[in-house]
Amino acid sequence: MTTPIPLDALCTRFDAALSQWNTSRNTPQLEPTWRAFAAFARENVDCDDESLFFEAGISPSQRDRFYVHFTRTVYAREVVAGHVFAMIINCDFLFALSSELKTFTNAGEWAVEADELDQHPDERARFFEEIAAETTLWSALQSATQLSGDVYVGEG
């Protein structure tokens, strides 16, 4: 078993994962960022709890845009004060709404909470398998025009 990633190394380790896929927080592209995220989210982090979340669909605030959003949130308790805090990897992408993407009015959302990860060891793998199985969505996104990409790693 590998040594868990310490919380204070989360940013550095995710940056390294992004680099392995030839992308970065400064100039993120969806596909390599997703691949880096998926690989990194399989790694063990030294935390109390965590959750994974992915959603995609037509933007409710910009009806001519399609968004993809995914996060990994890890929770820990400060040793001295006992306060719970969260560290988050948050990835947001916005695309021009193509005719292909218009068909995904409610593309969907997938989430895995801490209790599911604790009780069902295969839940993390299932989360990524279900998202990867959305091949029509991924194909439409590959041919769509990415308008923006934002990756945040820090306190949430």
What does this structure look like?
This protein is an alpha+beta fold and 156 residues long. 33% of the residues lie in helices and 33% in strands. The protein has helices spanning 10-20, 30-40, 99-102, 114-119, 123-132, 135-143, and strands spanning 49-58, 65-77, 84-96, 108-112, 146-155. Strands 4-1-2-3-5 form a five-stranded antiparallel sheet. The radius of gyration is 16 Å and the shape is globular.
Which secondary structure elements does this structure contain, and how are they paired or packed?
Layout lengths: L9 H11 L9 H11 L8 E10 L6 E13 L6 E13 L2 H4 L5 E5 L1 H6 L3 H10 L2 H9 L2 E10 L1
Antiparallel strand pairs: 1-2, 1-4, 2-3, 3-5
Helix pairs in contact: 1-2
